[in-house]
Design goal:
Length: 895
């Protein structure tokens, strides 16, 4: 059994921020850690649990049988519910299997496959007050009195080859199942070689990460900083944040903005989520994250921003860098090369063990047979794991003495004082032993940004798969079998790029840009095509090669105007879909400045239209001002896009104008919507029923009539229904699943709001529409949209009078609580408050004036809604929720 305090990092950081480091740490121990540890140990004594070890805020416990383990876990959670330790919450995970006991430093520990599975089961839990176990544990423990089991089926756990069935131990009658959430370990793992040695360094890094919020792992290139950081975090144990995010800075611009953009991208935040640095800090605040900032020497000008990030409550930073940051609060861990000299047995050296392990990967029978030659080989690597790997790859094909002599001869070419002399010598040696094609291939491959696949290597650099295999065998390239992509370490790339002359660089840069922009154009067309599978493939391809795309576009911008023009048009839809608005605005304005209404009217008008779309979608700046700019761009485009000469482009721009007026927050709302409707109807003079754009305009017309504040409400909604149903004739579930689901959800909203006809019949239609939308909108693929539809379903069932009222309200509560799995207070405060308020209404009616659990829940929900509305400045809504909570509280106290 593994236990852990949820959000311990954020709890500790909040106290440190309020009281200073020493007092904050002391208060954390006194208020949370010590009472928690005492409470856990008391239950272990009662249920025959053996405390294997305690790591900060987490326990590893062994039991003689599964029933004791489950009973202990349930007792812990019930006790913390009945006698809470302030806001502290605990998560618990269990698995049953054989483990291997061993002794280290006089203490007993357990190791083995079952231990790894138990730790991974616990890591699936994000929130507290819950217990997960494997099916093996649940089967052996049977079902203790007062609990229920809910089986979620098989899950693939990191580091576990087989799938494990996960079971939720529901220890409270009111608990509902909460499906496992895969832990956010966004860590790369390109290494195919074993992890050997560095136990002392790993232990020191773990200790530093638990004690400090900003740790820099400092060392020269090739010393293994990234590998040590990743291996330490994968085996982190307790006391570290649950969500670990890898941020590659190798190609980030050397500016504070470059760092923050890389962090935002690694967190999968769009500009809508975090449009500026202040919004990014707000998103990070109060979380439970560790950011691994890799290759920080590339962005040293952003050192001050790292200190700001590390000062954010709920955030910890691990930096790998060839230079220390020299900022307040930084704890530096110097990573030295592995020892290569000893008077004792060679086998005591980590560098020796690593070398032998790597060589035996190539030939299991290989054994070192010359101690002095072995010492000379290790000395030539300077104890750098990267170089040990390079040389060990050849060891089974050479005599050790021959290998030592080759390395010694090459090392003599470089002055001993030259930085990275051993790195250059070993890379020269590794390259020279390759056939001629392999020697010329490596420098050409250095032109790629990030990774690349076989097709790109063949087309751009004329590299054969045989050469790629040779470079992988020589450990000069890394190959990811899951993705089929190759990558090169920064040290190797720098060395290889220096071997290209100016003419080769120019030729390869042109070939790289032309090939990737052509592929970008094809992908852009695919993103506009029918069929979600085609769109998904295109999106995944651009995602994988995004760094290569950026390099290609940047080169074309400076060198080839026509290629740059093509790149901007091709990248527009992808940049819009991924909310990279700032980049798209810059590219669009740059290109527009190079185009002329007189010389290139169609291209100029197309760019005006694209720029209008971007301004309309911008999440930053003045919303009304952005939409006014968008409207100006669309009107400019209509100077060229006339209905007679360019009917399709004209209709697209008319539709875009309609969208802008629907969203415009300034001016007369009714006039704006009337203009939008007129523009949509103009577009339909050209767009036919057989085209997808026709369905999009029909859906837009439905939205406009749904929002129209004047006229006959029933007639407006009837028109909205007609337009949505027309769109669904073209937007089919098979061909346009996401668009189809959106229209179904819109149609459900109309039926829920319809003031005429049989109310329950209308609500039944709305429920059917929402149910249809959920066939596409899954919690995994479209979480925010899924939560919206869940909330809408809750509203429909709460209003439904047909059937058993209690059953309808129970369903409504279930749907609201499902929405709240996605709409969290931190990430979606307004939506979270809405769902809490709706949930309060459902609980309020469920109580029917009687005191009890439902009545108390209603009060808690209204109080939560008050907090959420207040946080986003919705004062009227907050006051309404506060009054409702106060009124129910008065009723409760009076009775």
């Amino acid at each position: 059994m593994f236990t852990d305090i949820v959000g311990s990092t954020a709890l500790r950081d909040a106290l440190v921020a309020a009281h200073g480091e020493n007092d904050g740490d002391r208060l954390y121990r006194e208020r949370f850690q010590y009472p928690h540890n005492s409470r856990i140990r008391a239950h272990l004594d009662r249920h025959h649990g053996f405390e294997v070890k305690t790591n900060g805020d987490s326990f590893m416990v062994a039991f003689g049988n599964a029933e004791d383990a489950v009973s202990c876990a349930v007792a812990i959670q019930r006790n913390l519910r009945d006698e809470p330790i302030e806001t502290l919450a605990v998560r618990i995970g269990m698995h049953t299997g054989a483990a291997t006991p061993y002794e280290r430093d006089g203490k007993w520990d357990y190791d083995g496959h079952a231990v790894n599975i138990a730790a991974r089961v616990e890591s699936l839990l994000k929130g507290g007050e819950r217990v997960y176990c494997s099916r093996a544990t649940a089967t052996l423990a049977k079902t203790p009195p007062g609990i229920r089991y809910h089986n979620y089926g098989p899950y693939l756990l990191k580091g576990v080859s087989e799938k494990i069935e996960i079971v939720d131990v529901l220890w409270d009658d009111a608990m509902q199942p909460a499906p496992p959430e895969q832990p956010h370990e966004r860590l790369p793992y390109p290494w195919l070689t074993p992890w050997i040695g560095r136990e002392r360094e790993m232990s020191a890094l773990k200790k530093a990460l638990r004690a400090s919020r900003l740790v820099t792992l400092h060392g020269i290139g090739g010393v293994g900083k990234t590998r040590l950081a990743v291996e330490t975090l994968l085996a982190r144990g307790g006391g570290l944040p649950r969500e670990i995010v890898f941020v590659s800075l190798e190609r980030a611009p050397d500016t504070p903005e470059g760092l923050l953009t890389a962090v935002r991208d690694a967190l999968a935040m769009t500009e809508v989520d975090a449009p500026d640095s202040a919004a990014l800090y707000r998103q990070l605040h109060g979380g439970d994250r560790l950011l691994l900032l890799d290759n920080f020497e590339s962005v040293m000008s952003a050192a001050g921003s790292v200190a700001h990030l590390a000062a954010t409550a709920g955030v910890r930073i691990l930096v790998t860098s060839q230079r220390a940051l020299d900022v307040p609060g930084e704890r530096v861990i110097d990573l030295e090369p592995m020892e290569t000299k000893t008077r004792d047995e060679l086998a005591t050296l980590d560098s020796y063990q690593l070398f032998v392990g790597l060589a035996q990967q190539r030939d299991a029978k290989w054994r070192p047979n010359d101690d002095q030659a072995m010492r000379d080989v290790l000395a030539a690597t300077d104890g750098l794991p990267y170089l040990v790997e390079l040389v060990a790859a050849v060891a089974p094909k050479r005599q050790l003495k021959q290998l030592a002599n080759e390395l010694k001869t090459l090392r003599a070419r470089y002055p001993s004082a030259e930085r990275h002399a051993s790195v250059r010598a070993c890379l020269e040696w590794a390259l020279e032993r390759l056939p001629a094609e392999g020697r010329t291939a490596l420098p050409r491959l250095a032109m790629f940004a990030g990774g690349f696949d076989l097709e790109a290597a063949e087309a751009i650099a004329a590299i054969t798969i045989a050469s790629l295999d040779e470079l992988v065998d020589a450990s000069l390239l890394r190959f990811d079998r899951d993705t089929g992509r190759y990558s090169m370490l920064p040290t190797t790339r720098e060395f290889a790029r220096d071997r290209l002359d100016g003419n080769d660089q120019t030729r390869l840069a042109h070939a790289h840009a032309a090939w990737f922009i052509e592929r970008l154009s094809q992908a852009g067309e695919a993103l506009r095509a029918k069929g979600s599978e085609v769109q998904d493939l295109a999106r995944r391809w651009i995602d994988a090669d995004y760094e290569n795309m950026r390099q290609a576009v940047a080169w074309a911008e400076g060198e080839e105007p026509k290629l740059f023009e093509r790149a901007v048009f091709a990248s527009g839809i992808y940049l819009r879909q991924t909310c990279r608005f700032s980049e798209l605005v810059r590219l669009s304005e740059t290109l527009l400045g190079r185009l002329s209404l007189e010389a290139t009217p169609k291209e100029w008008a197309g760019m005006q239209n694209n720029l209008g779309i971007v301004h309309a979608a911008l999440p930053t700046g003045d919303r009304g001002g952005n939409l006014v700019k968008a409207i100006e761009c669309f009107h400019a485009a209509l100077q060229v896009f006339t209905e007679g000469d360019f009917p399709s482009d004209w209709a697209m721009t008319q539709n875009n104008l309609g969208n802008a007026y629907v969203l415009l927050p300034i001016g007369d709302r009714n006039e704006n919507l009337a203009k939008a409707i007129a523009y949509y109807e103009s577009a339909l003079r050209v767009r036919t029923e057989h085209d997808s754009p026709w369905a999009r305009t029909q859906n837009n017309l439905g939205n406009a009539y749904l929002r129209l504040p004047t006229g006959n409400r029933n007639e407006n909604l009837a028109k909205a229904i007609a337009y949505y149903e027309a769109a669904l004739c073209v937007r089919t579930e098979h061909d346009f699943p996401a668009d189809w689901a959106t229209t179904q959800d819109n149609l459900g909203n109309v039926y829920s709001d319809l003031p005429t006809g049989d109310r329950d019949e209308n609500l039944a239609k709305a429920i059917a529409c929402y149910g249809a939308a959920l066939r596409v909108r899954t919690e995994h693929d479209f979480p925010a949209d899924w939560a919206t539809t869940q909330n809408n379903l809750g509203n429909a069932y709460r209003l439904l009078s047909d059937g058993d009222r209690g059953v309808n309200l129970a369903k409504a509560i279930q749907f609201y609580e499902a929405a709240l799995r996605v709409w969290t207070e931190r990430d979606f405060p307004e939506y979270w408050a809405d769902a809490q308020y709706n949930l309060g209404l459902a609980y309020e009616e469920m109580a029917h004036g009687k005191l009890g659990h439902s009545y108390e829940q209603a009060i808690l929900c209204f109080e939560a809604a008050t907090r959420g509305y207040s946080a986003v400045g919705l004062t009227d809504d907050a006051e309404n929720a506060r009054k409702r909570a106060a009124a129910r509280t008065d009723d409760f106290q009076a009775k």
